[in-house]
Amino acid sequence: MSLEKKIPIIVLSIILFSYGITMSTSEVYADSHNIPPISVSTDSEKYADGDTIIMTVNIKNYDPSSGHAFTWLIKSPDNEDVAIGQLVPSYDGSFQVTIVAGGNMWKLSGDYIIEFRYGSDSGETTIVYTGGNAPGGIQNSITVTTDKASYSEGEVVLITGKVRDLYSGTPASVTVLHPDGSLVSISQVSVGYDKKFGTEITAGGALMDIAGTYKIIAQYGNASRSAETTFFYKTAPTNISFTNPRTVDAFGNSLDTVYVAQQVQITADIFNNNNFSQDFFIYHITIRETGLEAWIWGSLSPYQIFSPALSWIPTEPGIFTVDISLFDNMENKNKLSESLTLQILVGEFEEPTHDHETLLTISTDKSTYHQSEGIRVTYDISKRIPDEELIIYLYYDTLGNPISTTTISDYVLSSQLSSVTTFFPVDNRWDQDGRYTIIASYEDYTTIIGVDVVTSSPSYPTPDTTPPKILKPTDIIVDAENQYGARVFYDVLAIDETDQIVRPSCNPSSGSLFEVGKTRIICNARDSSGNKATPISFYVTVNSPEVLIPNWVKEVAAFWCNDTINDESFIEAVQYLIENGVIRVSLNYDSGVVTGQIIPDWVKNNACWWSEDLISDDDFASGLEYLVQQGIIKV
Predict the structure, then answer these.
(1) If DSSP states are collapsed to H, E and C, what string results for 405-469?
(2) 3-state secondary structure at position 13
(3) What are 480-493's pLDDT values in tens digits?
């Protein structure tokens, strides 16, 4: 590059450098003249429930002789006033305001605006509060969940949760709501020292009577500390038989062999054994090897038999596995019966050989038919003769009178691989019980087959309308295992004239944790026909023991034994635990702690041995009772 081309670049750099110095000086000047009348800052941008907010304020033109007060105001995300205050600033106009975040007015999570006013001057800042309910959201000071997303009748719903802040003596309220909003159950659940709580309910019963989404609301202390979750309840399957998976042709005839490019129907038999309608069902198939999925839906009347079918045309030979299911809906796919599996062998089509004698055979799908049913007749021809038709001459009634004649062309025989099926309804022309004859002719071959027809309607079993009876057990009385109560197991039976033994569903369920006191158990039962028994109830009473000391208190005793805490601290700890019901002994106490008295060595030895599991709870309690009797502990 020449010198002439370099000079303009150097000059431009000098101009830019000088211009930059001028701008820097201007900015410094501007900063010194743009201090706001009221400047505000906080010690953090984000606060949780119970956090301390420290606001630092500086008034630029403060006149201490004016006596004007300074006002501050906090507004919630929905523009509600949550806190307000007024004070006189210090001599230089700078000061701090301290407030604790949370309370009944702090309901929403989000941005809170803090406004400051002094005379005609004002200023503001924004903080983020995380301790309330986000609009449409869940309170983060408590959580609740279930062990599964959906449950069937009789299954145990395990509800667990955790609180962020522990409030002594405050239980968590757990409410279960019906899909229509009505109450299913409500319980008060103790919150442990690990801040966790849990309870159980049994799915089903008189109040959980329909399939749907049920809501659980957990609340701790007040409505602002609440959370919710949901679970889906699946009603007990109705008594529906689902059997006989098979492949059939377009006429409903069963196919032992399927060929490539042949259209087949995949079907199974459904029988509604109930005396009530199944308003909705979904017949669903999946062919594993192809990923094909198809379904149809419908409804069933009481005692109706139905064989839905879905079409499939295989494109390649092989063995294919079909899963066939019956659901009551597609969203949750609750089964109405156990699923079926069908294997289909698909082969390449080969023309039949003609080196054997021509033979025409006839077969029906069963031997006896009732009025309004249909007769499926299959015709097999081992050797197809060009241009020859299959003539089904007549259907004869018992008097020998013809009913109808059917002709099947050579073209149809070719397309159906020389095996065809016809369908004949047993209508009012079949007006007598007895043996009917079918005659078929192909070239010079004639075949005859007979079927029996009963013109009366088929009989169905008498519907079961008698509900089961629940055998009421005797009330149960047990002693508490710890301060939370006792886990109680029980067994309840119901008897039914059809199902014999029925297992009821009870709430609370057997094996649940029962709190100290008297708890009512409600049991319901339903037989396979859907008949509901009259609910029964009985009681479980958990007695409070005279001596109750949780194992974790041994750590406190070990602290005293190892001189980590002194005698006075141990006495205060024991007094605190007795007053709050953690330690329970059978004595009456007065208030107060007497200090300066000597604790006998044997009491401390008892505490050491108990912390090492060398003596029982009763032995350790005797030492505590001695301290009370001697006036060393007064509660």
Answers:
(1) CEEECHHHHHHCCCEEEEEEECCCCCCCCEEEEEEEEECCEEEEEEEEEECCCCCCCCCCCCCCE
(2) helix
(3) 877 678 899 999 99
Edge-first strand listing for the sheet containing 517-524: 476-479, 536-543, 517-524, 505-507
Distances (CA, A) of 627 to 456, 611, 624, 634: 92, 18, 5, 9
Report the alpha-carbon distance of residue 318 to residue 331 in Å, rounded. 32
Show Cβ contacts of residue 12 under 8 Å, excluding neighbours closer than 6 positions: none
Question: Which of these, 546, 549, 548, 547, lies nearest to 611 by C-alpha position?
Answer: 549
**CB contact at 8 A, 328 and 282:** yes
Residue in 528, 463, 539, 540 with CA at minimum distance from that of residue 494: 528
Report, as an integer, the average pLDDT of 282-300: 85
Say if CB 506 and CB 202 are below 8 A apart.
yes
For residue range 447-459, list pLDDT tens digits in order: 777 777 777 665 6
Q: Residue 606 burial by CB count (10 A; 0-12/13-18/19+): exposed, middle or buried? A: buried
User: Rounded CA gap, 37 and 120, in Å?
Assistant: 10
E-assigned strands of 307-414?
A: 309-312, 318-327, 340-347, 360-364, 368-370, 374-381, 390-396, 406-408
15: pLDDT strictly greater than 60: no
Query: Which of 163-172, 346-355, 399-408 has maximum average pLDDT?
Result: 163-172
Number of H helices, E strands in the chain: 6, 42
Determine the Cα–Cα distance for residues 216 and 206; give it in Å rounded to an integer. Answer: 18
Secondary element (H or E) of residue 538: strand 536-543
Sheet containing strand 196-202, strands side by side? 142-146, 156-163, 196-202
CA dist 303 → 7, 132, 235, 459 (Å): 104, 56, 20, 10
Report the SS3 class of residue 534: coil
Residue located via tokens 């431009």 = 12
C-alpha distance from residue 192 to each of 132, 168, 259, 410, 514 (Å): 23, 10, 67, 84, 15
**287 near 320, Cβ under 8 Å?**
yes
* Cβ neighbours, 10 Å, residue 623: 20
| DSSP run (H or E) holding 622 | helix 617-629
Cα distance between residue 145 and residue 136, in whole Å? 18
What end-to-end distance do the CA atoms of the chain give, in Å?
A: 99
DSSP string, 23-37: HHHHHHHHHHT---S
By residue count, the chain amounts to 635
pLDDT greater than 50 at residue 16: no
Q: Which three-class secondary structure state does DSSP give residue 617? A: helix
Q: Are 471 and 494 in contact (CB under 8 A)?
A: yes
pLDDT at 80: 83
Of the segments 8-17, 410-419, 518-527, which one has the largest average pLDDT value?
518-527
Average pLDDT, the chain: 77
Number of Cβ within 10 Å of residue 371's Cβ equals 17
CB atoms within 10 A of CB 469: 16
Q: What pLDDT is stored for residue 139 in this prediction?
A: 43
The DSSP call for residue 612 is T
